[in-house]
From TrEMBL:
The keyword Hydrolase belongs to this UniProt entry's keyword annotation: yes
Keywords: Glycosidase, Hydrolase, Signal
Family: Belongs to the glycosyl hydrolase 43 family.
GO biological process: carbohydrate metabolic process
Active site (UniProt): 34, 213
Pfam family membership, one: Glyco_hydro_43
Name of the molecule in the record: GH43 family beta-xylosidase
Site (Important for catalytic activity, responsible for pKa modulation of the active site Glu and correct orientation of both the proton donor and substrate): 145
Superkingdom, natural source: Bacteria
Coiled coil stretches, renumbered: none
Phylogenetic classification of the source organism: Bacteria, Pseudomonadati, Bacteroidota, Sphingobacteriia, Sphingobacteriales
GO molecular function: hydrolase activity, hydrolyzing O-glycosyl compounds
Claim: Lipid metabolism is one of the keywords in the record: no
Length: 340
């Protein structure tokens, strides 16, 4: 009898200890803008903007990101059109290989374009990352923040781009891909800044930019969503907007997409979270939970610099099938880790 009680006590203690281990707090790292995570075979593969290279983290748990294996998978060569200002990398597994997408330029923002790396290894921390080159539609206009999806057997890419050759308005475009590194056909504009909350972008000196950027695909039921960041990241009003379409619709038809008239995720001054945005999504290890990964600032006025830090939180779904992201959680608050 004593042995049974002893074993019961040990099991209870282990359960309690396990419950404490299965929590984490935001931010996940002290700094890191434009965070992206891809979950595969028991590991999170995480990346964010580093400026002159593409770094990749590998971890089994979110709270382990601080101590995770980290590797520079590609460093920009000097003297090219893609040597500087490497922004918003995404590393994902498509059709049997790993691909990394990122924006880069030669030090002049007007030359930002999207580029692709490929790795045939089963583990993206191993093997060789091959530079596949620029990925662009025939107009070859300014482009950043690419995201790719394999939807019903067809690859699509969305990105933030300029209509012409001058800054002033960032819009969301979509195109089919022939393969993970080649655009097939023309780009189609599916979002332009329309509402007042998308147009907060004064730069001083009379300069102003309206912004739709950082688009991310999100699937649920019979709907497909694009969650994007709106207004300037240099403002506290950087927020997430949403485009919705039927999964049965023609994704290349602008009429298929409906824009929500209010932001779906925005700053929470009472919780000390400002300018939340440039998000990505991932599932919990057991596939039952949906999570949003985003960056934000701890104080007002911190802008687009190194104060931005990556954060994650679980989100739910509304009765109409749309995502409910809630409000950004306060830094330091203990959260239950993604379910196993």
């Amino acid at each position: 009898m004593l042995k049974i009680k002893y074993l019961f006590t040990i099991l209870c203690l282990l359960q309690i200890a396990g419950s404490y281990a299965q929590t984490f707090t935001n931010p996940l790292l002290s700094s890191g803008a434009d965070p992206y995570s891809y979950y595969k075979d028991g590991y999170y593969y995480y990346t964010h903007t580093t400026g002159n290279r593409v770094d990749l983290w590998k971890t089994k748990t979110l709270d382990g990101l601080k101590d995770a294996e980290r590797k520079t998978i590609w460093r920009a060569p000097a003297g090219t059109l893609y040597s500087k200002e490497i922004w918003a990398p995404e590393v994902m597994f498509l059709r049997g290989k790993w691909y990394a997408y990122f924006a880069a330029d030669d030090g002049k923002n007007e030359n930002h374009r999207m580029y692709v790396l490929e790795n045939a290894s089963a583990d993206p921390m191993k093997g060789a990352w091959i530079f596949k080159g620029k990925i662009a539609d025939p107009t070859d206009k300014w482009a950043i923040d690419g995201d790719v999806i394999d939807f019903k057997g067809q690859l699509y890419m969305i990105w933030s781009g300029w209509e012409g050759d001058e800054n002033g308005k960032q819009e969301i475009f979509i195109a089919r891909l022939k393969n993970p590194w080649t655009v097939a056909g023309k780009r189609v504009k599916i979002s332009t800044p329309k509402f007042s909350w998308e147009k907060i972008g004064d730069l001083g000196g009379g300069a102003h930019v309206d912004v739709n950027e950082g688009p991310q695909f999100l699937l649920h039921g019979d709907k497909i969503f694009i969650i994007y960041s709106a207004s300037g990241c240099w403002t506290d009003f950087y927020a997430l907007g949403m485009l919705s379409a039927s999964a049965k619709s023609n994704l290349l038809d602008p009429a298929s997409w409906t824009k929500s008239d209010q932001p779906v995720f925005q700053q929470s001054p009472k919780d000390g979270v400002y300018a939340p945005g440039h998000n990505s999504f991932f599932k919990s290890p057991d596939g039952k939970e949906d999570w949003i990964l985003y960056h934000a600032n701890d104080k007002p006025g911190q802008g687009c610099g190194g104060f931005r830090s990556p954060r994650a939180q679980k989100f739910s779904w509304n009765a109409d099938g749309t995502p409910n992201f809630g409000t950004p959680v306060k830094a330091g608050l203990s959260l239950t880790s993604p379910s196993n």
